[in-house]
Amino acid sequence: MNLNRLLARAVKNWPAKVLCIGLAVILFIFHRLSNIESRFFSVPLRTEQMSSLMPSSSYPRMIRVSLRGEANSIFPILEEDIEVFVDMEKYNTPGTYHVPVQWRKKGTALRVDTLQVTVDPAEISFTLDYKISKFVPLIPSFQGKVDSGYTMTSFTLNPNQIIIDGPAELMVNITELYTEPIDLDGRRSDFSANVNIFQRDPLIVFRGTGSSVFNGAISQLIPVRNFLDVPIAITGLMEGLAGELAVKTGNIHLEGGNQGAVNRFEPGSDFLRVDCSGITESGIYILRVQTDTNPDTMEGIRIRVSPEEVSIIISAAGEEP
């Protein structure tokens, strides 16, 4: 009796009850869908299980990743905790292959069970060639100039050669590599810098850090100029005496100061001379070759003369020396 009454109550107004249950289910689904969010980012593509082959043509290096799930689950996931890779283990002869792009979770992504992950593109075409390894020298590349009046006298790179890996066809033409430009602009002293190696082709792989330590030695330039066969003048000779030089010309060597001052210098007619004012009688004398130098006009230029001394024969005027 009680069971019949219970069944009668259960089926009483059953259309309305079914409608309520349906609405409840719809509301529940709508609530769940309203909490579903999508998130997009790009991650680098890893090539795994490469052995004797390497890619020999360009391919996408970044893959677009889409995460779909509850907002409070997908947004705390770190981008580096979704790894995207291609498994190249089964490819062992050169050729072109279509390889599926795969993904895996790690770190923060492992804590999310209801997570939908898609990658774009889902498949990549690879052209593979045999992998070649070789040593190549490393050459510094420069930009700018050291300060005026200075020069770079020497430099070193450490290391000055590296090992590279690459596809056979491409490696044939690679005999050297360059650094990224090293800035010399305005430098006046020795310097060191850590410089990256210029990546001439993304298919080439550097072993090591991909950088080198550059050491440059900067020195100040010393301006130099020479004048040859400059006449040596005889000055201060007493009246009634005559002089004859054994060597009538000398050479002038200039250095120091600045290049402009050195370029402007011109020796006058009696710039080189011997002073005979202390000679009072005939004879043979050894005199020092003097220079007509004015500190105000020499502008820091140092002068060296050769010969430093000359022999002169002094005789009475009109006599044969």
Description:
The chain has 321 residues and is α+β, with helices and mostly antiparallel strands. The protein folds into four domains: 2-32; 37-130, RNA Polymerase Alpha Subunit, Chain A, domain 2 (Beta Complex); 132-220, RNA Polymerase Alpha Subunit, Chain A, domain 2; 224-316, RNA Polymerase Alpha Subunit, Chain A, domain 2. The chain is 15% helix and 48% strand. The chain has six helices and 24 strands. The protein has helices at residues 2-11, 14-34, 71-74, 168-171, 259-264, 295-298; strands at 36-48, 53-55, 62-70, 82-87, 95-100, 102-105, 116-120, 123-139, 142-143, 150-158, 161-167, 177-178, 182-183, 191-196, 205-206, 211-220, 224-235, 241-245, 249-256, 272-275, 283-288, 290-291, 301-306, 309-316. Strands 2, 5, 8, 11, 12 and 15 form a six-stranded mixed sheet that branches. It has a five-stranded mixed sheet with strand order 6-4-1-3-7. A five-stranded mixed sheet has the order 22-20-17-19-23. It is rod-shaped. The termini are far apart. 11% of the residues are buried. The model is unreliable at 27-31 (pLDDT under 50).
